[in-house]
Amino acid sequence: MIEIKLSAEKIISFFADIELTPIEKGYLESHAIRYSHIIQTIDPLIKKIIETKNKVNILDIGPHYLTGILKRFYGEKVEINTLGWPIDKKIVPSEMIHTHFNFDLNCCQHKEKWISSDKHDLVIMAEVIEHLHTAPSIVLDFVSTFINPGGFLYLGTPNAVSLKKRMIMLMGQNPYEKIRENCINPGHFREYTIQEIKEYCREVNLSIYDYEIVNYTPAMGVKGKIVRFLGRKYNNFNEMLSIIAQKTNVLF
């Protein structure tokens, strides 16, 4: 089990000075353990880069709570750019970021609309790709242009074939929500398996550095027994998957 250095409680405290709505507060509290796990996963990469460059250039795609967590936790050791829809300045104040690129990733399918910038040591794409209706092969091709040679992409997304979804399907129900009518909050268009994400990364010359399939909270009952029997990190029954890819040669 991963040792969490930055607790969920500490993460929630980062936003104690912000007047959050009940919905915003509930989202933060329910996702704090996920943010904690992401920080723990990318922390070795950030420290490795700091050792050689003294500062890490990060691009956070889909800026939200995680952006503020990164800045509050690492301080001046990180310079953060963001990319996505217009930024929520209450949750991500302007002084926390260097540059925001206002760009809808679904526009990646039109290559003439691609934007460019300086390259980054680490690009973070957490809980984003499942909300896009544009093919990941196109999106990741665009995203890769923002990564330094030798730099990294962290991509996190729900596992399309988790045990919970398999059980729901066995009962004759669709485990995936309907496409929403609200284009501002479109929900999940498509979820992916770890093999699919690996293949998409390799298609755009991003090597697989590491990956995991985990539950952020302990599974209980029969599901818990299966999880414990099969192990946590690479158990394809778990709820969430993440991959670290590097702009270099394939490692495994």
Automatic annotation (TrEMBL):
<dbReference type="Pfam" id="PF13489">
    <property type="entry name" value="Methyltransf_23"/>
</dbReference>
<dbReference type="GO" id="GO:0008168">
    <property type="term" value="F:methyltransferase activity"/>
</dbReference>
<keyword id="KW-0489">Methyltransferase</keyword>
<dbReference type="GO" id="GO:0032259">
    <property type="term" value="P:methylation"/>
</dbReference>
<keyword id="KW-0808">Transferase</keyword>
<protein>
    <submittedName>
        <fullName>Methyltransferase domain-containing protein</fullName>
    </submittedName>
</protein>
<dbReference type="InterPro" id="IPR029063">
    <property type="entry name" value="SAM-dependent_MTases_sf"/>
</dbReference>
